[in-house]
Amino acid sequence: MKILGIESSCDETAAAVVEDGRKVLSNVIATSLEEHKLYGGVVPEIASRRHAESISGVVKEALEQADCTMADIDAVAVTYAPGLIGALLVGVNFAKGLAFATNTPLVPVHHLRGHIASNYITSDVEPPFLCLVVSGGHSHIVAVNSYTDFEIIGKTRDDAAGEALDKAGRTMGLAYPGGVSIDKISKGADENAYKFPHPKVSGCPYDFSFSGLKTAVINTVHNANQKGEEINTADLAASFQKAVVDCLITNCQKVIKEKNYKKFVIAGGVSANSKLRSEAEIMCRKCGAKLYLPELKYCGDNAAMIASQGYYEFISGVRAGEDLNAYATMPIDEKYKTVE
Ligand code: KG4
Ligand code: ZN
């Protein structure tokens, strides 16, 4: 069964064809990242315009590279939430037009479920497992009970991990996206040079909080500037990265131990982070759990992961009608409902 995936939730316009949820036949991505770098963050209006310009060509190329026409496609899977609303609407409307014009079933896919599926195209992992989903907009610990049954175990109370890394990177004068720059500049630096608080969160013991850490790094930079002191940016970046990764890994370890998980999976843009990947490895060895990490090329936003999850949603019976809309926010555990 061949699924055409379409993704446009942020600044990547992507299309891919995936066979039976696991075999990537094509994976095409156009990005407007370079334009956003000028502004230090994604400008939604620019992202939407670039999606509108690129989407036809990107989908055409994905079909061509997979040696397919729409006649070979069993379903069109599209990211419908969460994300930038204007950006999502481009993908959703394109997918609707294509699906209904070619009489192909349309399957709505939650972006974070897609990130989790990036592991299905990288390894043979199958649910149930525990997953840390860390992106620019979300930081969740999710119990993946089946391909389409998700349960939120812990989440951030404020900033997402990627968002905190991006903002800290900007304060340190590093290029956007800060998460990528921090990872690069931290190599070989002293991660114990600066001390950061370990944020305490009351209530759910698996929840995160990153806004205090972000404020601490901003204060460190401002205080040094006011006193005319030099900051060692590489050491500061490495120390901040360590603090963020410690918070993520500590909570995941708690869940793995308390709920006796044997499979641990990481997904989302921040899963490309080298420190997170190596600390996860160490933690899983200690806990006796098997670790699964997405291939680096599938960590960031792409449509192969959407086509993969789309396959599992499709075979479980999920379909969208002509009323399919896009949503800026949507919990990962919410079932898709058509409007009556
Ligand atoms: O999943 P993603 O591509 O887009 C969203 O769905 O948000 O995630 C983007 C986030 C950004 O915050 C970016 O800084 C972060 O992923 N990121 C990284 C790395 N690569 C991307 N953070 C840390 N280390 C990396 N190597
Ligand atoms: Zn994403």
What does this protein look like?
- By secondary structure, this protein is of the alpha/beta class.
- Helix content is 41%, strand content 19%.
- It is built from 10 helices and 10 strands.
- The chain has helices at residues 33-37, 44-65, 85-101, 111-117, 161-171, 178-186, 211-227, 233-259, 274-287, 304-315, and strands spanning 2-7, 12-19, 23-31, 75-81, 106-110, 129-134, 139-146, 149-155, 263-267, 290-292.
- The strands form 2 sheets. Strands 3-2-1-4-5 form a 5-stranded mixed β-sheet, with helices on both faces. A 5-stranded mixed β-sheet has the order 8-7-6-9-10, with helices on both faces.
- Strand 2 (12-19) and strand 3 (23-31) form a beta hairpin.
- Helix 5 crosses helix 6 (178-186) and helix 5 (161-171) packs antiparallel against helix 8.
- The mean pLDDT is 96.
- Bound molecules: 5'-O-[(R)-(carboxyoxy)(hydroxy)phosphoryl]adenosine and zinc ion.
- Residues 10, 135-137, 162, 165-166, 177-180, 183, 268-270, 272-273, 300-301 line the site of 5'-O-[(R)-(carboxyoxy)(hydroxy)phosphoryl]adenosine.
